[in-house]
Amino acid sequence: MERDRRVVRVDDEHSLAGGIKLVSRVLGKDYGDDLRRYALDPSHMLQNTFLVVSGGEAVSHLRLVPREMRIGRSLLRVAVIADLVTAPEHEGHGHARTVLDAALEAARGERYHLALLCTDLNNFFRDQGWTQWYRPTFTVDLHPDNAVGVPDCVRTYRSSDLGSVMAIHGFCGSRYSGPLLRSIAWWKSDLQRYVDGGDVLVVENQGTITGYARVRHNWPNESGSTIMDLLAMRQVDECGLLSAVIQRAVQHGSVRLNGNGPLARSLDDLLPSSQRPCS
Questions:
Q1: 221-265 pLDDT, tens per residue?
Q2: In sequence order, what are the residues at sequence separation of 6 or more whose Cβ sits closer than 8 angstroms to the Cβ of residue 211?
């Protein structure tokens, strides 16, 4: 048992830097890129980062991201749990549970209605009293020789497209990305993050934006690309965006494409039967 451990709610840049370095090391991220992402995040506040410190160093980290969710007529404050990591050499001492308990206690005190997270550690969080919120997903194996025609109406996002992209998400975003709300500040900061390592694409028909897609390459690992959003007003535009996403993923060397369930049917129309998505 590590007797000198303590939980710290970050209140200075030095402690924050120690936490980000830990996240970068454990998750294999670039430290400089993580610093840039923090700077761009409009919801970032020092006190939303929690650390377990042992022997003078950060050994476990958690970031609480404040968001809002609309369910019917109710607007809920949501605490999204992000970047929960423990240094491998300090695993097995309950640090993750300690920092998670501290963050949730703080969220309760600040009157959040709900806490959410995305994880592969289902058993760990189930043991902590969490309930799984099922969302259908799919995975597609890609091949370098995938030849998918991309229509001329699909192009790269421009800053002048922001209003149209926000309107499309507001109209039909919940069916793909869930009911979490996105502010203008969120959109502006998030789209800046795709300068490197990602794509934002739009469909433009006769001067009108009718769909968009956000894709992260080399995520969640170096061999994969993940569709973060893909929304369109028409089925034909959805297929056009998917064609462009597949092309970009193959160009980035991805062998796997991940996404959420509503797109699986469109992928069936684009790929041979041997490559069709599996859930």
A1: 778 999 988 889 888 898 899 999 999 999 888 999 988 766 656
A2: 168, 202, 203, 230, 231, 232, 233, 234, 237, 238, 240, 241
